[in-house]
Amino acid sequence: MAEPLRVVVRFADGKVLKGTTQDFLPNRPSFHLIKADGGPLQEIPCKALKAVFFVRTLKGDPLRASHKGFLAAPVATALGKKIAVRFKDGEVLCGYTLAYQPGRDGFFVTPADTQGNNLRVYVVSAAAVEVKIGPAADLVVQSLRKQPR
């Protein structure tokens, strides 16, 4: 049996669940979550999600400041091409992808911040309003930096 994966499941409506899964596959319509709070096994429908964050720890580090954007790196690396995803809720995820194809239900992103808690993220395409690859991903980050805080 596969080792359980620690995940933070973020729904499109803002709800968040934490726990482990052993049956997540990107081409399946749902997976099961064993909730960290000890609740019952829950079936998670992928269509209701924003993203699934595969994490180092379920607690994270609330004192650590996450890096927004890309660290000095080329447009493509062994992790794939640069990608910037803007979600419907305004959050922007920057990283690298080997498997993005428009029209698919979702895709994986390896976060640009390799020291953060997120190891990889499965993005549900329907939750994104903008996806940019390569040099265009840098432009998304630059536009964020120009926005007033």
Features:
1 helix; globular; SH3 type barrels; 149 residues; mainly beta
Q: Number of domains in the coordinates?
A: 2
- What distance separates the N and C termini? 47 Å
Count of distinct strands: 11
What is the N-to-C order of secondary-structure elements (H for helix, E for strand)? EEEEEEEEEEEH
Largest sheet: 11 strands, antiparallel
Query: Quick check: average pLDDT?
Result: 87
Summarize the structure.
This protein is mainly beta. It has 1 helix and 11 strands, in the order βββββββββββα.
Describe the structure.
The chain is mainly beta and 149 residues long. The chain has two domains: 5-55, SH3 type barrels (Roll); 76-146, Roll (SH3 type barrels). It has one helix and eleven strands, in the order E-E-E-E-E-E-E-E-E-E-E-H. The chain has one helix at 135-146, and strands at residues 5-11, 16-21, 30-35, 42-45, 49-55, 76-77, 80-87, 92-97, 106-111, 118-124, 128-133. Strands 1, 2, 3, 4, 5, 6, 7, 8, 9, 10 and 11 form an eleven-stranded antiparallel β-sheet that branches. The longest helix is centred in the C-terminal third of the chain and has 12 residues, at 135-146. The protein is globular, with a radius of gyration of 15 Å. The mean pLDDT is 87.
Show the helix and strand layout:
Layout lengths: L4 E7 L4 E6 L8 E6 L6 E4 L3 E7 L20 E2 L2 E8 L4 E6 L8 E6 L6 E7 L3 E6 L1 H12 L3
Antiparallel strand pairs: 1-2, 1-5, 2-3, 3-4, 5-10, 6-7, 7-8, 7-11, 8-9, 9-10
